[in-house]
Model the fold of this input.
Amino acid sequence: MSWVKIWVHMVFSTKDGTPFLNSSELRKKVFGHISENALEKRIWLDSVNGHKEHIHCLISLGREQTISKIAQLIKGESSFYINKNKLIPQHFSWQDDFWAVSVSESHIAAVRKYIEGQENHHRTKSFTEEVDEFMKKYGWSYISGKKDD
Done:
């Protein structure tokens, strides 16, 4: 029997960064549903939390799972759930992109604490500032789609 434990911290935002998830009650409902759905889909979702326009997930990948497939399952089903149940007045969707980084077993507790503390974290720091920090920390850059850049 294969044994795999690959931890991933995944972050994705709402379409165009629109603050659709603008109440803690709505976020709690959506994140609770995401957790339940992950369990049904055999996705090991350790932690899920976020703020008005984004979500963080700490996931342990199974041996036949890919990051992109997990993102697709979580984003697609949660969008469907939000729209089907009319949890917000307008059409909801997630941004196509996502960010994902591997997490060492020794850092799981710190990442879990970071994810759980999103409400407090975003009292002093915007999502844009958080994205910029991630970009610098992991050496990422935006891709403009132009050859000349």
Summary: The first strand starts at residue 6 and ends at 13. The helical segments are 24-40, 67-84, 108-116, 118-124, 127-138. The two ends are 47 Å apart (CA to CA). Residues 6 and 61 are 5 Å apart (CA to CA).
